Amino acid sequence: MKESIEGRIDRLHAGGIVDFHFDLLIDLYEKRDRPGALVSHFLPEFEAGDISMLGVAIYVEDRYLPEMGLRVALDQVARLYAEVEQTNQFAICKTFATIEQARAAKKIALVITMEGVEPLGEDLNLLRGFYELGLRSVGLTHARRNAAGSGGIFKPSGSARDGLTNFGRDVVRECDRLGIIIDLAHINPKGFEDIIGLTSKPLIVSHTNARNFYDIERNISDEQIMIIGQRGGVVGVNAILVSSDAKTTTLDRYVDHIEHVIGLIGIDGVGIGFDFCEYLFEQLPEKVRTELASKLTKPHFIPDLTNHSHARNLTHKLIERGFSDEEIEKILRGNWLRVLEECL
Ligand SMILES: [Zn+2]
């Protein structure tokens, strides 16, 4: 009997989906007076999308910097631990073995990541502190400049020309020593170049898009994609910067980005970094939204891929576009798990 498409999605999802970039901690922190938000607010979507592992990012918004950076970051991590403690459906994982145990127990494995090292100030010692709390992947910058380096801007050119600072170089070396994966998402082109010269470990870009379809320096060029491939790394495809134009911000365009990466570095180099943040964006006052749009860019959201419950739509589309089971499994989880096994 021929398998139905829903049956095939069920089978492909049985091993769970890995999304390596989700700004969960900002929201848990903002909802700190509403304990239980992880279960009441997020779990239903994770379950509907068969999510089995997430990279959850520490990110400190401009309004808290610089004075409150460290404090807010630690509060975010504390909220995560407090939320996870209240349920047996999640596990904060510091090793590959615990990720596998969590997945086997049908828990959602959470790996703590950092998007911008503002919380460290210029104190390398704090990186060790965050490592002990579970930090396992670090992106040096968001779009702004910090003590480590500068981010890529949301325009085709014009990012800061300078690369990493001495502190940024120290952070990369210390990450290597501790076993923290370097994430090249957001870094400016010169910073990207500096990092690849400093480390020989597998490198990842947790959430980004191809400049081929959306030419801004926040996204990555074909040349940069090839470097990630040569390092045995993974490019996580972002759901919110697939196009500059709302009309072509579609699930098909998302899959175009996946195919583009595969065309350059093969099926082993691509994963998911959805970066779902429409819910965060919608919570912002109109004024802040306009401000953000002018400072960064006005994001467009893919209508049928705006939160984790939509993961099945992606798998459906991958099937429709002719991907094999083996290929789909690598995209949905296998490639991320391979890199995590190698690095953690
Ligand atoms: Zn980001």
Walkthrough of the structure:
This protein is an alpha/beta fold. Helix content is 45%, strand content 13%. The chain has helices at residues 5-13, 24-30, 37-48, 69-85, 96-104, 125-133, 166-178, 189-198, 222-230, 251-265, 278-283, 286-295, 311-320, 325-343, and strands spanning 17-22, 51-58, 90-92, 108-115, 135-139, 181-183, 204-208, 234-237, 270-272. Strands 1, 2, 3, 4, 5 and 6 form a 6-stranded parallel β-sheet that branches. Strands 7-8-9 form a 3-stranded parallel β-sheet. Helix 1 packs across helix 13. It starts with a helix and ends with a helix. The structure holds zinc ion.
Rg (CA only):
19 Å
- Coarse shape: globular
Q: How confident is the prediction overall: mean pLDDT?
A: 96
Question: Quaternary status of these chains?
Answer: single chain
Let me know the number of strands: 9
Bound molecules: zinc ion
Report the biggest beta sheet as strand number plus sense, adding barrel if it closes: 6 strands, parallel
Q: Which regions have little confidence, pLDDT < 50, spanning 5+ residues?
A: none
Please state roughly what percent of the residues sit in beta strands, choosing from under 5%, 5-15%, 15-25%, 25-35%, 35-45% or over 45%: 5-15%
Number of distinct helices: 14
By secondary-structure content and strand pairing, the structural class works out as alpha/beta
Q: Provide the succession of SSEs.
A: HEHHEHEHEHEHEHEHEHEHHHH
Give the CA-CA distance, first to last residue: 42 Å
Proportion of helical residues: 40-55%
